[in-house]
Design goal:
The protein is of the alpha+beta class. It is about 30% helix and about 25% strand. It contains 15 helices and 25 strands. Strands 19-20-21-18-23-24-25 form a 7-stranded mixed β-sheet, with helices on one face. Strands 2, 4, 5, 8, 14 and 15 form a 6-stranded mixed β-sheet that branches. The protein has a 6-stranded antiparallel β-sheet with strand order 11-12-10-9-13-22, with no helix packed on it. About 35% of the residues are buried. It comes from Camelus bactrianus (Bactrian camel). This is NXPE family member 4 isoform X1. Keywords: Signal.
């Protein structure tokens, strides 16, 4: 007996055939019938394949008849029409579509993990929150001189503003060691015992005078407040869409979510269930949307008392202010440390992941060689996908490869696509922005905007195709599930790419840290850190490279969403070592 799936496939074939042939004789011009005769013959000859491969017929009908039928009817050939026509046919095996329900469960599972890391910490008065001044840091087993390679441990006991010992953890701390004269720096590892005490561990990577820093970015109560507030609204940043209306423009409110009784334009990716909305202007079609800009809305989901925790004087306060620099010497010089293997995909992640010395990044678990950029990129197509922190890479390539010529793509605005080509070395490098949300006060074009999962689905991929993805900064002002869903959709697109082209090299660049005193409710590094944890968790099952820009920018101490070129150069050098 045929299975229900087989019945479904045959019904699909029959329906497509009836629609096509019925419409064919009624509406198509004579010359079109003559043109498609060979296609019709091809279909009849391939009829025998349908019993064993109904997908083959669906593909044939869609590719041959649908395209010509749409053209003859003078209908636009667009992705939504194509998906609608094909949705009753079996999906190709290399294009697995995750159901919305399954995606919701995946988001929920990640959210539960994050919720466990950030318990609710209500407080009655600011004096009961963590105080950097009252807290006490103690170096364990202090020495006059330390040896390079040693681990230095600091015990931190946190107290509130009245000097009372805290009984729980959860403070957002940042540990760093540095030697400015040597252009050296590294992050420290913070272990939270969840009882008001922390162990801060520094690996002494270099010799010289080393300064230790331990910043209280936010107290645990502030972290809890930021986490609760982030879940509550989409309107901390609001968008204005510009629609073309003849020779004039019409502006309208837009958002990731609009609670409005008026007619809306819904820009929906039906497969990945990601949407953006605008209030529909009167007498203007939704397709006329051309530009977008954003601004911060005067709204907060924090109480007045909670907001006081994020005043400038309370953010990033030094705990180890009174500590003198330590001295680190080259002891045991007769012992030669083994040279670690060259950096490649899949290597063990460590905390810290490396250190800066003489302005050069040195990973812990592998070694980076100096790579001649132009030779490494010979014959390669590099896709840089994401935000302006990966656009910095594009700008670095253009300034460093003098034969890389920019191609005018006839776009305008802040987020216009960029494309560079070196014809002699056959190098092609492209930067493309990610889809909504994009936060920026200047108008930017959305005529060519698309989600990165769709971009990746269009890339054929092979051993000379390199894809670097970076996103996060523009997602910080919105509920975390927006970021998680986007990361999951990109993960699934990368998974599909690696199924069809396993030699393609995909690299995830984590977020940079940014300015410390820049509107904590919207842009705090706490939001970035949570996204950093989420994206590492999401991509851990794929054979992709990870560039730990989070740890790198802490080591450099940049505190700038767009770090200096020396930092960008070292991030790119990791990529070059991955691929060459």
């Amino acid at each position: 007996m045929p299975s229900s799936a087989q019945h479904h496939e045959k019904r699909c074939i029959l329906l497509l055939l009836i629609i096509t042939l019925t419409t064919w004789n009624r509406i198509l011009p004579k010359n079109f019938k003559e043109e498609t005769h060979s296609s019709n013959t091809w279909w009849l000859q391939s009829k025998a394949l349908t019993s064993s491969s109904p997908q083959f017929l669906c593909m044939g009908l869609n590719n041959v008849y649908t395209l010509k039928l749409w053209t003859a009817l003078k209908l636009p050939i667009s992705l939504p029409h194509w998906n609608f026509f094909m949705k009753s046919c079996p999906e190709a095996p290399l294009n697995p579509v995750v159901s919305p329900r399954k995606t919701e469960l995946r988001i929920k599972k990640i959210m539960e993990k994050l919720d466990q890391l950030i318990p609710n910490r209500p407080f009655t008065h600011v004096t009961s929150t963590t105080s950097a001044k009252q807290s006490r840091a103690t170096i364990l087993n202090p020495q006059d001189t330390y040896c390079r390679g040693d681990q230095l441990d600091v015990l931190l006991e946190v107290k509130d503003h009245l000097g009372r010992r805290k009984q729980y953890g959860g403070d957002f701390l940042r540990a760093r060691m540095s030697s400015p004269a040597l252009k050296a720096g590294a992050s420290g590892k913070v272990t939270d015992f969840n009882n008001g005490t922390y162990l801060v561990s520094f690996t002494l990577f270099w010799a010289g005078k080393v300064s230790l820093s331990l910043l209280l970015i936010h107290p645990s109560e502030g972290v809890s407040a930021l986490w609760r507030a982030r879940k509550q609204g989409y309107d901390r940043v609001i968008f204005t869409g510009q629609f073309a209306n003849g020779t004039s423009q019409v502006n309208s409110d837009c958002a990731l979510f609009l609670n409005s009784s008026t007619e809306l334009c819904e820009y929906l990716d039906t497969r990945d269930q990601e949407a953006f909305y605008c209030v529909k202007p009167q007498h203007v079609p939704c397709a006329a949307l051309t530009h977008m800009r954003s601004k911060n809305k005067n709204v907060s989901y924090l109480s007045k008392q909670e907001r006081s925790l994020f005043e400038r004087s309370n953010v990033g306060v030094e705990i180890m202010e009174k500590f003198d620099a330590i001295t680190v010497s080259n002891c045991n010089t007769e012992k030669t440390a083994p040279v670690p293997k060259k950096c490649k995909f899949g290597m063990t992640s460590t905390v810290p992941s490396g250190h800066v010395w003489k302005d050069t990044w040195n990973p812990v678990s592998c070694s980076l060689a100096p790579i001649e950029m132009k030779e490494c990129l010979k014959g390669k197509f590099v896709y840089l996908l994401g935000d302006s922190t990966i656009r910095q890479w594009m700008e670095y390539f253009k300034s460093s490869i003098n034969t890389l010529k920019s191609v005018d793509l006839h776009e305008t605005g802040k987020f216009q696509h960029q494309f560079g080509v070196d014809l002699d070395k056959n190098i092609k490098i492209q930067w493309q922005k990610h889809g909504y949300p994009l936060v920026g006060s200047l108008n930017f074009s959305v005529k060519e905007i698309e989600y990165l999962a769709r971009v990746i689905d269009r890339i054929g991929g092979e051993k000379n195709t390199i894809i670097v993805i970076s996103l996060g900064q523009h997602f910080r002002p919105f509920p975390i599930d927006v970021f998680i869903q986007r990361a999951l959709n990109i993960h699934d697109a990368v998974q599909r790419l690696l199924l069809r082209s396993p030699d393609t090299m995909v690299i995830i660049k984590a977020e940079n840290i940014r300015e410390m005193h820049n509107d904590a409710e919207r842009f705090s590094d706490f939001h970035g850190y949570i996204q950093y944890l989420a994206i590492k968790d999401i991509f851990q099952d794929l054979n992709v490279g990870i560039i730990d820009a989070w740890d790198i920018t802490i080591a450099y101490g940049t505190n700038d969403v767009h770090p200096p070129q020396s930092v960008v150069k070292n991030q790119i050098n990791i990529m070059l070592n991955f691929i060459c």
